[in-house]
Amino acid sequence: MLEETNNISLIEDEDDQQLYEHFRVVVDKNQEPLRIDKYMFERLKHSSRNRIQKAADAGFVHVNDQPVKSNYKVRPLDVITLMLDAPQHDSTIEAEEIPLNIVYEDTEVMVVNKPAGMVVHPGAGNFHGTLINAVAWHLKDLPTFDANDPAVGLVHRIDKDTSGLLVIAKTPDAKTKLGLQFFNKTTHRSYHALVWGNFNEEEGRIEGNIARDPKDRLRMSVFPPDSDVGKTAITHYRVLERFGYVTLIECILETGRTHQIRAHMKHIGHPLFGDERYGGMEILRGQRSSTYKAFIQNCLNLCHRQALHAKTLGFVHPKTNREMNFTSDLPEDMQQLIQKWRVYIHGTTIDTFDY
């Protein structure tokens, strides 16, 4: 049995992903051992071997429901599947009149401040109401921009429930040049996050490969940097404000992996406040009193998501070569959440740093 996808399209991103089957084959019982990238290349007519290898490195190539690397040797009766982050669906992007918070715009680029709760691109059950649907409407009278053309549009992504800054390329040249900056790690991106726990240090660095959690494909796990599992990921963090039970930090990315900040912070014992997928909805620090539990629940009601905002974005303009730097205010829900913790700390006689 053989089903084939038209192509394998990979993009560096940070958004939530659900995997969908695009290709399935059961290996013949007489098959000799053969690298899986070569085996798939011979059967996927529209994909290069390099693309297949990248798909395997990203955890998209599975054998018997488990991700494998490109050097895996296929065996008789193996069930091979290609799992991608968008369903086989009519993915035509339609222009939709949705408000956009445009921070900057010229003939080459747009910088927008995305609200929490908005998906950046159609897929995984969200085929309307996305950021790119809104961009398509905003640029509907621009003949050179086609939202369905991968040569323009999104250069990077952030999670649905993360707010903050994104850059969009309006021309192919702009997307190529901006894409190279992200690839070469010459862009600047900083996030503000409220995380559980206190830090002994003022700043730190997290390095750990990121790959899908084999037990939960909607979550990412962190693996040793010298392992063959996952992609290299590096996050720098700095303490901005301490509340004892929680801490406001700044995170600066060297890389842009799926759920990077969320997975890295969970890995070092500081899940993002309100991050249900990584355990941030639990009361991880503090008291057992009903009053404190009610306070935490009120905090979670104020900010119905992981407390993470893409605050700054910097890049070199693809046409003028001028350094462009943008900043955005924390959204109202995070401002209210942080203020609630300030009031709590000033009003309590309990030492929130002693736990």
TrEMBL record:
<comment type="function">
    <text>Responsible for synthesis of pseudouridine from uracil.</text>
</comment>
<feature type="domain" description="RNA-binding S4">
    <location>
        <begin position="34"/>
        <end position="98"/>
    </location>
</feature>
<dbReference type="InterPro" id="IPR006145">
    <property type="entry name" value="PsdUridine_synth_RsuA/RluA"/>
</dbReference>
<keyword id="KW-0413">Isomerase</keyword>
<dbReference type="GO" id="GO:0120159">
    <property type="term" value="F:rRNA pseudouridine synthase activity"/>
</dbReference>
<dbReference type="InterPro" id="IPR036986">
    <property type="entry name" value="S4_RNA-bd_sf"/>
</dbReference>
<dbReference type="InterPro" id="IPR050188">
    <property type="entry name" value="RluA_PseudoU_synthase"/>
</dbReference>
<comment type="similarity">
    <text>Belongs to the pseudouridine synthase RluA family.</text>
</comment>
<dbReference type="GO" id="GO:0000455">
    <property type="term" value="P:enzyme-directed rRNA pseudouridine synthesis"/>
</dbReference>
<protein>
    <recommendedName>
        <fullName>Pseudouridine synthase</fullName>
        <ecNumber>5.4.99.-</ecNumber>
    </recommendedName>
</protein>
<dbReference type="Pfam" id="PF01479">
    <property type="entry name" value="S4"/>
</dbReference>
<keyword id="KW-0694">RNA-binding</keyword>
<dbReference type="InterPro" id="IPR006224">
    <property type="entry name" value="PsdUridine_synth_RluA-like_CS"/>
</dbReference>
<dbReference type="InterPro" id="IPR006225">
    <property type="entry name" value="PsdUridine_synth_RluC/D"/>
</dbReference>
<dbReference type="InterPro" id="IPR020103">
    <property type="entry name" value="PsdUridine_synth_cat_dom_sf"/>
</dbReference>
<dbReference type="Pfam" id="PF00849">
    <property type="entry name" value="PseudoU_synth_2"/>
</dbReference>
<feature type="active site">
    <location>
        <position position="159"/>
    </location>
</feature>
<dbReference type="GO" id="GO:0003723">
    <property type="term" value="F:RNA binding"/>
</dbReference>
<dbReference type="InterPro" id="IPR002942">
    <property type="entry name" value="S4_RNA-bd"/>
</dbReference>
